[in-house]
Amino acid sequence: MIERVGVVAKSRLQAAGPHLADIAAWLRARGVEPVFDPDTAALTRAADRISTADKDRLPSEVGLIVVLGGDGTLLGMAASIARAGVDIPILGINFGSLGFLTEVTLPELYPSLEAAIDGTADIDARMTMKATALRNGAPFEERIVLNDVVVTHGVLSRIIDLSITINGQLVTRVRADGLIVASPTGSTAYNLSAGGPILHPRVDALVITPIAPHTLTNRPLVVPGATEIRIQPHLDGSRDEVYVTFDGQFGFPSREGDVIAVCRGDRPLRLIRASERSYFDVLREKLKWGQR
Question: Alpha-carbon distance 248 to 246, whole Å?
């Protein structure tokens, strides 16, 4: 039985205010303590009567996290769960415009929440990726991501030069606007927009997709999930800017000689889904398949 539930809403999402108060009351009526992050608590009129914990501390203090917002809000909370090193499920309620991850609708909120609390919810184990940035051979940044790692040019750069190796073997050297390494979950994000394939979440694989490659023979590549992918930008003393971003939540400018290593994460993210909707139902709804 879950005794405490964390609740996080998209920053400044005023429309969530009334729902947050209702969620808190609903949880208390069932003997479950709601715990909001401070920014979420501020969206309610009863902030002084709600237990709070910051987003990095929240995953360690609750047995479930409910996110109200879009996919970006859920990705940010997934990163906090990864940093905390805990294995708790996350329920995404869609307040965004698309919502591949926050697929549960407002009418489905309470049935989904009740199933999560009593342990009968349908939970997908979504592969995560561990991305390590190395400079002069030493790690200087490590992130756990759910969707993708993206290497791309800066505002003033037109095209960048990248080497790709898999398990120490050279794959290719590509000139493009950038490169995406996506998980199956991330295959419906930037990867899809860049022409990459959709991977079912249960497929144990990663996809490497060039962004607007200079040579049209550079196509997306699907590789086993157990492989290590290394990407090295080649600046060659030019003024080109290369940026590395993780799930669109964090990034840094790359320097000559930097290497980005990406592999499967040690622990999947447990994502609660609506029991009445399959993955293909979500794809049809979000991508408008079959509509005329």
Answer: 5
- CA dihedral sign of residues 252, 257, 258, 263: positive
- Name the residue with tokens 């949880």: 27
Q: Specify the DSSP class assigned to residue 104.
A: B
What pLDDT is stored for residue 183 in this prediction?
98
| Alpha carbon distance 78, 89 (integer Å) | 10
Tell me which of 48, 54, 56, 71 is the catalytic residue: 71
pLDDT digits (tens, 9 = 90+) for 218-259: 999 999 999 999 999 998 766 678 999 999 999 999 998 999
Given CA atoms 186, 188, 190, 194 in this order, what sign does their dihedral have?
A: positive
Which domains are present in the chain?
4-127+268-287 (3.40.50.10330), 129-264 (2.60.200.30)
Q: Which two tokens stand for residue 164?
A: 């790709």
* DSSP one-letter code for 267: S
Is residue 87 annotated as part of the catalytic site, yes or no?
Answer: no
What are the pLDDT digits (tens) for 22-66?
999 999 999 999 999 999 998 887 666 789 999 999 999 999 999
CA 68 to chain centre: 15
